[in-house]
């Protein structure tokens, strides 16, 4: 690709910059399957459920979406609900507690290929932002040693504070481009989630790159990716082209 055609790169975090998508998957699996067993539901939560109902969405939307797939309705509750509460918010907070425990024990390292691309873009002066549904984005970036490259972070926390609709709506990506001072047509979206590439497509950005971490290239293209790569290192050579 010719990076001279673009002025900004808008990255999802989990599964694009860091492999924390795997940690999220484990945390969701533990929380949902514990919940289902306690309710006597025989059909377990699976990785397929993660990609279909949860991946890329704001935390409570993911809870609500999966529960609906099993015909389960819970009150929304409030974000301040304890992790023990039988509410959408309570389950979301329970998952987050599991996530924080895993991160504290195991830490997080960024994908080497993603580090290569981010550093190459930084050298050529491309503006960069993180656009993540996770409320833990800043903490994860700090733990991964990558936060210095992203002056703009639009996470689930900022989205809530600013009243921005979550993915698959394009609002958070549009806000990040605006914060960077770059027209959407000059910005590239990087996403590994179906809801994320759908958001990039809906926002009519200059380019939407799907990062295939397991959901499948065909599915990413079907939901709005213009290009699919398995690793961001594939784009480093093009990033080194100077304006």
TrEMBL record:
Residue stretches in coiled coil: none
Gene Ontology molecular functions: beta-phosphoglucomutase activity; metal ion binding
Reaction(s) this enzyme catalyzes, per UniProt: beta-D-glucose 1-phosphate = beta-D-glucose 6-phosphate
InterPro entries linked to this entry: B-phosphoglucomutase_hydrolase, Beta-PGM-like, HAD-like_sf, HAD-SF_hydro_IA, HAD_sf, PGP-like_dom2
Alphabetized UniProt keyword annotations: Carbohydrate metabolism, Isomerase, Magnesium, Metal-binding, Phosphoprotein
Pfam families: Hydrolase
Cofactor dependence: Mg(2+)
The enzyme's E.C. designation: 5.4.2.6
Highest rank taxon of the organism: Bacteria
Annotated family: Belongs to the HAD-like hydrolase superfamily. CbbY/CbbZ/Gph/YieH family.
UniProt-listed PANTHER family: 6-PHOSPHOGLUCONATE PHOSPHATASE, HEXITOL PHOSPHATASE B
Name under which the protein is recorded: Beta-phosphoglucomutase
Annotated organism of origin: Aeromicrobium chenweiae
